[in-house]
Every structure is written in structure tokens, then in C-alpha cells.
Amino acid sequence: xxxxxxxxxxxxxxxxxxxxxxxxxxxxxxxxxxxxxxxxxxxxxxxxxxxxxxxxxxxxxxxxxxxxxxxxxxxxxxxxxxxxxxxxxxxxxxxxxxxxxxxxxxxxxxxxxxxxxxxxxxxxxxxxxxxxxxxxxxxxxxxxxxxxxxxxxxxxxxxxxxxxxxxxxxxxxxxxxxxxxxxxxxxxxxxxxxxxxxxxxxxxxxxxxxxxxxxxxxxxxxxxxxxxxxxxxxxxxxxxxxxxxxxxxxxxxxxxxxxxxxxxxxxxxxxxxxxxxxxxxxxxxxxxxxxxxxxxxxxxxxxxxxxxxxxxxxxxxxxxxxxxxxxxxxxxxxxxxxxxxxxxxxxxxxxxxxxxxxxxxxxxxxxxxxxxxxxxxxxxxxxxxxxxxxxxxxxxxxxxxxxxxxxxxxxxxxxxxxxxxxxxxxxxxxxxxxxxxxxxxxxxxxxxxxxxxxxxxxxxxxxxxxxxxxxxxxxxxxxxxxxxxxxxxxxxxxxxxxxxxxxxxxxxxxxxxxxxxxxxxxxxxxxxxxxxxxxxxxxxxxxxxxxxxxxxxxxxxxxxxxxxxxxxxxxxxxxxxxxxxxxxxxxxxxxxxxxxxxxxxxxxxxxxxxxxxxxxxxxxxxxxxxxxxxxxxxxxxxxxxxxxxxxxxxxxxxxxxxxxxxxxxxxxxxxxxxxxxxxxxxxxxxxxxxxxxxxxxxxxxxxxxxxxxxxxxxxxxxxxxxxxxxxxxxxxxxxxxxxxxxxxxxxxxxxxxxxxxxxxxxxxxxxxxxxxxxxxxxxxxxxxxxxxxxxxxxxxxxxxxxxxxxxxxxxxxxxxxxxxxxxxxxxxxxxxxxxxxxxxxxxxxxxxxxxxxxxxxxxxxxxxxxxxxxxxxxxxxxxxxxxxxxxxxxxx
Length: 892
Hints:
By secondary structure, this protein is mainly alpha-helical. The protein has a domain at 667-832. Strand 5, helix 19 and strand 6 (510-515) form a beta-alpha-beta unit.
């Protein structure tokens, strides 16, 4: 018997099928199907070896029952599968949950592997084949604005992802490592088909799948902030350090054509990396000043190691003899200076390379990078000094006629320094405005300072230290959560002066207001007007060419007024802020605090960029990349390169005349529709969340409290209040919990009633065709609905004692399904995206199995009132939470 022979893919839902599973399987790419079949069969062998034939038989029985129930074959029902789940012993229930979770991990990596396979196949075609590539974006810009303006916009392009440690990555690092090893073996297996020992690859696959099966999927302790930093460093080491210059190179090759490599590069270093990991202290008591300092040291160690190895490797290859490739006067001057400051180093290198001037200079540069990492005498003071030395070397090579060496690997090194500096990712400190208010009150009172205020002040001293050690770019942005007035920005500078003793000693700071709630978004431009009057802000504007950053929070605005109103409010806020920036001669960068889940601003980010209001992008796009999304987007080199290119292309095109005009015209044409959607969706959302007793009911019908027991990340799930209040619940567990309950309420609730209030299908279909914001909203809601399951949702909702609230949720789900279909003109959800629709239908029954196991555990917990996270029932519950997250993906 072969476990899990079908091919899964992205998410789950009913939509039940006029397509049979056999027909679906036939339509799925054969290579992916073969990978999933292989991994499933190998997992079946491991389950038999580990738990005997009975374990595999129980897993197979549950699989068959959930498939039949999903497809309504043989008069089967979900109750049949439920009875089987209830019959399992606690030990068997746990084993089955782990089996399905292991399967999803294997299926997910097979899909990633296949995506890489497809990307490699596409790369063999012409670069302008796909419309979302950088070459296509540049060609379109040239057509619309002319070559000179298109080149100017490319030169100013900036894509700025910011890594955050929000706890949406449910996998342990040990599990992720096992998955990565299996993925590497799949690549080896592809090579094995060309003559390598396939039997050996299969044996090693079995070994690693056995490790995956035997590795506990649950963390025993929460990761620390520094654990999260080290996890992010894995991504940098494995992909980003190499991938970023590869993306630049791909663009340069296209731009220069046959001159690529011979002529100076045309592609700019357009990406910068930021990080909140171990710097975001909003509600996280474990992020201290000392932790932030150590995080910066870890990141710097990684980038300087990378630069050191690259410089050494390239230096060893620059064996160009001075007879054919003489040193320029500037290079001779640089060598003389190197001899002056490092006589011992230059003596050794000069002895080895007496007639290789370019090699010896670069080897001394590598030695100075080592000194920078160690903080010794030869250290570079800042990245610009290193870049200056590399430019001298590059220009000398060009003067000597060695253009290939000048514009090849050496240029990659220059791009890496330009992108990552000596800090790798700029640490962005974030703190809640309320904490600042309390701290400044204590400082001004002049008495003894409390521990919290002392820690706040120490953070500013840490920022000053980091800037002295790694340069100002290492840590200059200071984000103020829940900015409600300009005083919240002014307080940032006042505290910095108090911490360092004077304005002159204070670190360089760009205070960034974060507008999160609906009310704050509405008041944003008023606050910004007042912010311009702050002397420190004026000074920074003068120093930066009037550059200013404003952050928008997607998560809390959605929890505040619902997903539809939040989407519209964010759009209107961007329009207002963009107009304000233009009126005040501000070079604006909007920083989008998007999450991974649809209820937190998720969905295809490049499509979201194109749907932004005119004037709000202007070639600059900054966003948070959170939790599981970091691994999904940057965990593989080919996928990371594709993601970076797509985002850069969208950032360029968002400000094209045609795109801005389309957004502007649609916004005007559908203003009345937007008003109806806003008002009615918010009314409907408030009917639910403002109902008496909603918060404790929410905690009953979802595993919200239990999610808090799952050691997902270093930050607590709450800022402090009880289950009686939603105000203090973070948006992440709010979204994650509804996703686990197969309801996904945060992604769609209120839209159905709002569409029904518009009522005119012709108008709605016109809006779907012409209004990019609305199109993206509907497409994302389709995805969110695709993750819902009425049968499972009813069972979760029955855990509470409020039939009225349960009926409200289910009614709105049905209305939303109906009106989304009417709006798109499709018979079924996702009819317009057949690949995703097929994936949904294949994956759904497997997630159903885990949901039934989770329901079994939840019912037991609810009936017993047990709060012991170590008992078997809680363990099963957390295992199922982990498995559902793996099955659904993009859950938090």
C-alpha cells in the first residue's frame, strides 16, 4: 500500500469537484507527481518500519475516508472519518498526526523543488518572455516615458525587504534542516537520472525521512531573539549573499547584451535589507539593548565573513602580470598606502606576488576586511572606504585593458558591499508609543528611573555604539508603534538626548511613524504636518534631501475594522500621505507592514505593489517579510532570485503612467462602490466582534489560547490583557487561530454583505476587471475562502455556546462565497486559476484529517478544563496545530 499517492499543493477547501481526483492528477505536472509519489511511498516504508503495518493501515484508512467524504463517494461522510479518529488510542492519534504532518512537509518541499525546476526551464527562454521580469518592466517604461527617464528611474530603484521574527513559522529549525537535506537529495535524484547511483540517493532519502519522522515537531522551549537572528542568518548564508548580485548580473547582461562583461555595468545595486529581529521590542520583554547589540554583531560577522571569503577568492584569481596588465597610478598610490599602514601584511603578499599588482592589492583588502571583522588596527572605518579601494582596483584593471576581470567577479563584490555594507541588514528598533510616554514622564520628573525607562535609554546608547562600530546605516530608523500624535515622534528625539546627555552626542535617528489603527490612519497627514515642525525632523530632512519614511500597519487595522474597510482605509491613507508628500516637497517611502496571511496583508506582493495609488511608490517599495514567508521567498536561490526580480519589476512599473492612470481612473469611477463596501463591511464586522461575549467565545471555538502554548517565537501572544479583551491580542494569533479553525474569518468577513449591498453584478464585474485594488482584494478573498471548509468550521463553532454567533459566521461565509462568484463570473471559487484550484482540491482531504485530530483534542480540553501543556491531549492538539499550519501554508 502506498501512503499519500496524490499530488498536493497550496491550500485547502471544499469546492468539491466536478473534477475527479484521477482527472486532477492527470493534469498535474508529471515530474511533480512523481516526486510526491516517491516521497509518499518512502514515508510509508518508514512508518511501517517505525510503527508496524497497523500504523500505516490506520493512516491509510483515515486518508481514504477523508477523500471519500470530501468527494462524497460511496455515500461517505465526514462523520465516518470522525469516528475513526475518536477510536484511536492517544498514542495512535499522535502517530497519525505526525504522519500527516510529515507528509505535508514532504509535499511542500516537492512543490518547492518543482517550482525551481520550472524556473530553470523558463530561464532558458528569452528574458522578456514573462511580463513580470525586469527586462519587460524596463521596456514598458521606455515605451511610456522614454529611454532617458526609464534609465533615471532604474538608477533610483529601491526594493527594501525587512525581515521580522513574527511567530508564524511553526516548524522547528531541526525539522526545517531535515527538510532541506531531503530537498537537496531530490536534486541529487534528478542528477541520478543522468547516471549517478539512484539506489544510493534513495537510501539516503529513506535515512533523512526517518530522521524527519523521528524528530519531534514541537519545540520544548521558545526560541530566544538571538535564536531567531541565527535562523535568519542561515537564509543570508545559503541564498541572499550569492543571489542578490546574480539578480543584478542578470539585469546587466540583458541591458548590455554582447557588451556585458566588457563594458562597465549598467545595473544598479537596488536592494537593501532591513531587520526587526532582536530589534523590535514592542511587547517583547526578551529584546533588550544587550540583545540588539549582540544581534548586530552576529549579522556583521556573517557579512564580513562573506566579503572576506569573496575578496580572498577573487584575489587569488587576479594573477595578471604587470607586463600585460600594468597598475594605474592610483593603484600604485593605493599599494604604497597599504604598505605604509600594513608593512608586515604587504611584505608577505608582495613576496608571493611581486609582479601581480592587482592581486596583491586585493589580498591586502581582504586582510583589512578580516581586521574589520575582528575590530583590529587595519579595520575599515566604514563601507565607503572599502568600496573606494575596490573602485581604484577596478579602474586600474580597465585601464590595463582587462575589462573582463574589472567587470566580472570584482563587480559582484562591489555590489555586495553596496547592498549589505558591514552590517548586512539595518536593524530597525521598534517600540510602542505608550512606553516612550511613560519613559519621558519619568525622565522629566527628575526622580529615580524605573527599570523600563532605564532600558529605553540604554537602547539609544546601543544605537550610538552600533553606528560608531558599523556605520550610521547599521541602525538609524526608529519605528514608533501606534503613533497617535507628533509628540510621539518628538519623544524619540527627546529620549535620545536624555540618554546620551546632549543633542550633539545623540545618535543619528530617523523616527518613523507607524499608523496602525483606523483612527490613526485617518489622522496621519495631520500628524505628519505637525511632525514637520519638529527641529530634529527638519534637520534630518535637510541632511537626507528631504527623504521621509512612513509605515502603515496592515494587521491591527484589519483587526480593528475588518479586512475590507482596512484595505480601503490603507489605500485612502496612502493617497493622502502621497499628496501631502508632494505638497511638502518630501521624497516619501511608504513602509508596508504586511504579514504572511491574507488577513494581515498577505497575497502576491508584486500584485499588491501594482495596485497602490498613484504617486505612492515612485520606484521605492519597502515591506516586512515575516516568519514562514522568509523561508518561502528566500529559502531557495532560484525562488529568491525570482521573488526579488518580480518585486523590483513591480516597483518600477507601479509608477508608470499607464498603471497610475488605471488606478486613478478606477478609484474615481468606483468611489461610490468603495463607500458602500467600506460602510457595510464594517457594520457587518462590528456585528460580530462587538457582540457581547465575543472575545471569550472566540477563545472557545478556536485554539487561540493553545496557540500561545506553541513555542513559535520569542514574543508573547498578548501585550497583557485577558481573554475577555481582543484589544491586547496581537494580530498574529488572531489570524492564526481563525486559520486553524478552517474559517479564515480575518481574510473575508464582511465582504459578502458589502458586495450584496452594492447588488449590481454588472458594476461589480466591471470593477473586478478595471479596478486593481478591488481585483487584488477579490483574488485574495478567493484564496482565503479556498482555505475554508464549511463542515470543519461548523464543528469548531460548535465548541462555543453561542449559536447566534456561529450562525452569523456561517451565513456570512455563504454570502461571501455567493457574491464572490457573482463578481468574478465564475461557477466555483478559483475557476479563474485552474492550477491553484486543482492544488486546493488535492490537498484538502489531508488537512481535514489533521483538523479532525485537532477537534478531538480541543473537545477533550474544553470538557476537562485541563491547562497542562504536557499531557497527551494537549500534545495532540499542538501536533495538529503544527500539521494544519504545514498543510495550509501562509497561516500567520
